[in-house]
Amino acid sequence: MVKIDLKGMDRSEMEQWAINYGLDAYRGRQIRQWLFSKMVSSFRNMTNIPKVIREALEQDAVINNLWKIRTLASNDGTKKYLFRLWDGCVIESVLIPERRHFTLCISSQVGCAMACRFCLTGKQGFTRNLTPSEIIDQIIEVKRSLANPADLKNIVFMGMGEPLANYDAVVKAIKNIVGADGLNFSTRKVTVSTCGLVPNLIKLGLSDVTVNLAVSLNATDNKTRSFLMPVNKKYPIEELIAACREFPLPNRRMITFEYILIKDVNDSVGDAYRLCRLLSGMRAKINLIPLNPHLNLDLVPTPMNEILHFQDILASNNFTAMIRKSKGADIMAACGQLSGEYLDSTNETFT
Ligand code: SAH
Questions:
Q1: I want to staple 83 with a disulfide (CB 3.0 to 4.6 A). Which of 66, 152, 191, 351 is the partner?
Q2: What are the start-end ranges of the E strands in the chain?
Q3: How far is residue 250's CA from residue 192's CA, in Å, rounded to a whole number?
Q4: Global pTM exceeds 0.70
Q5: Would the pLDDT of 128 be above 90?
């Protein structure tokens, strides 16, 4: 029997489910509170729910959709969580300490079909989409492990997978991540990052969820971008930028463009000027990411002095361009290094 997946439901679905299960609708809301506010890991803890119902639920429904098999801690404070899913697949989430809070980088798929040349997840290929509850449970598991769960304030869909290729599940998960009776994150603190699946990017803009948008641009001409990111053959730069220009942004928000700098590929002075022209007049900020190495990578990072020069050109054209040296490289937790692989099969936790 397939068990009932409660965290995958929104509020009205949960009320309806409660009624179908023979309960009053308010029981659905109560159980929601246990799942999302109190983050209990067992129906036994749901003390305002009658015991018979709790016992029935233990048989019929699931609470935990993934299991932490290991955490790895980096020298810079970054932590990588490896989670096993019910079917044995492994995904990763990365907890990044900021000055006053934490950011969690979550996965939306097992593997990825986009095959970006610079990304290890892309090299590994696509296994399957995550369900909404598998997306949400990455956050809940990490929050449970924090001394102060409220310190986790930012969620970025920048882990394994292409979130807009798993559109329905991602949007559904976001509703429970930002909902006041869900995990209650601020919509300003949730970012979806995409390689540029234009139709779904447009759909997201028209949908009823508000999140921040990040676009992995990584090149300024179609030849280079198609070489780095095969998705560009389907949705070339002009279409992507046009969709970004149309993307409805709430007050004062900006689209973030991510740009990995790769030696002799996309890092020329000409690229810097072309980038300014592409984004001119847009509410945009640029994150320059030094290429992170991994095995089998046939690309070389741009030296830091040239990255600084690239940044200067953007800045002198009035763009906010930050250099984002990604953290966690020593535990293969940095951008583009997530593979879901781990070296042995013990269940030890290293923190
Ligand atoms: N598929 C989504 C979400 C993954 S985000 C997307 O493409 O946006 C992963 C981010 O890491 C992207 O901005 C990507 O450009 C960056 N990245 C991937 N491989 C990298 C590498 N080897 N070094 C640095 N950044 C990398």
A1: 66
A2: 4-5, 61-62, 66-73, 79-85, 90-97, 102-105, 109-111, 126-129, 152-157, 190-194, 212-216, 255-261, 284-290, 320-323
A3: 15
A4: yes
A5: yes
Rounded CA gap, 91 and 171, in Å? 19
**Is-catalytic flag, 335?**
yes
Q: Catalogue all structural domains in the chain, each as residue range(s) with its CATH number.
A: 4-62 (1.10.150.530), 67-350 (3.20.20.70)
Residue among 204, 225, 211, 233 at smallest CA distance from 156: 211
SS3 call for 78: coil
Helices (H), 179-303: 198-206, 222-228, 231-234, 237-246, 269-278
Query: Among 96, 103, 104, 119, which is best to mutate for testing ligand 1, by the most ligand atoms less than 8 A from CB?
Result: 119
Cα–Cα distance measured from residue 186 to residue 180, given in angstroms and rounded to the nearest whole number: 9
User: In whole angstroms, what is the distance from residue 138 CA to residue 134 CA?
Assistant: 7
Q: Confirm if 158 and 105 have CB atoms less than 8 A apart.
A: yes
Helices (H) then strands (E): counts for the chain: 12, 14
Q: Specify the 3-state DSSP secondary structure of 110.
A: strand
Write phi, then psi, for 123 (nearest 5 degrees).
Answer: -70, -25
In the prediction, which pLDDT does 37 show? 96
Residue nearest to atom 3 of ligand 1 (CA): 158
Residue 12 in this model has a pLDDT that exceeds 90 = yes
Q: How far apart are CA 247 and CA 241, in angstroms?
A: 10
* Number of other CB atoms surrounding residue 52 within 10 Å: 8
Position 252 scores a pLDDT of 83
Q: Is the CB of 105 under 6 A from ligand 1?
A: no
The residues facing 111 across adjacent strands are 126
The predicted model gives 265-293 an average pLDDT of: 96
pLDDT at 345 (0 to 100): 38
Average pLDDT value for residue range 25-49: 96
- The pLDDT of 38-60, averaged and rounded, is 96
